[in-house]
Amino acid sequence: MLSILSDLKALDFGRPSCGIHWSAISRVIRELETLIDRVSPRHQGHGRRTADLAHRLGLALGLSCDELRDLTLAALLHDIGLLTLPPDLVKEHRELSPQEFARYQNHPRAGAELLEPISFLKRPALWIAHHHERWDGCGYPYGLRGEFIPLGSRILAVADTFDVYRSHSLSPSASSTATASALLQIVAGAQLDPGLVERFLQIVSTLTLADPTCSESH
């Protein structure tokens, strides 16, 4: 991971633009995606699906091109902090001890700290740091509440949560999409920004979403 981050730093010439520079950055981002998928195989492709959903919501909200690009980067890399944890803490499906859970809760901050030194990833890093905050203030790692949570983080949280709900279904299908949508409505106003959930569900109702078990291109 450190060598891949070093490659990103070597490409850090400010805001990425079209052409060769962005192509090289995209290649390195894909390498990080592969590492994240490897450490959390139960969520294979989760970053890419989350990026697609977050981009659609950001587009509907009228985000600028730069904001949409940063949102996509944040979504693709939002679980990078998992790479800083012991593998057994991520891969084993078991109840965590209080000490282990406290360490797990630090992964958004750890991920942000990995990316923040790279100038074109400063805003994605900020959004990653706060994507597990909750609308009611009971999230982590900082306990921010409501609109004190950056908008990009709130968008990311909606897309992330929806894909996790849908991917954990026993039968990914239109019915699992409906179930995930219903669960999203339940947590709106507590875990998630209720206004963003309402807008997101309007978008989802018009989409035919790909099966989460399939590999996708973005």
Protein architecture, described:
- The chain has 218 residues and is mainly alpha-helical.
- 59% of the residues lie in helices and 0% in strands.
- It has eleven helices and no strands.
- The protein has helices at residues 2-10, 20-39, 46-60, 65-76, 87-91, 98-105, 107-115, 122-129, 151-167, 174-187, 194-204.
- The two termini are 22 Å apart.
- Residues 213-218 have low confidence and may be disordered.
Q: Mean pLDDT, nearest integer? A: 87
Tell me the overall shape.
globular
Strand content: under 5%
* Count of strand segments: 0
- Helix and strand succession? HHHHHHHHHHH
User: Mind telling me the C-alpha Rg?
Assistant: 17 Å
User: Unreliable runs, pLDDT <50, ≥5 residues?
Assistant: 213-218
Core attributes:
single chain; 218 residues; mainly alpha; disordered C terminus
Topology:
Layout: H1 2-10, H2 20-39, H3 46-60, H4 65-76, H5 87-91, H6 98-105, H7 107-115, H8 122-129, H9 151-167, H10 174-187, H11 194-204
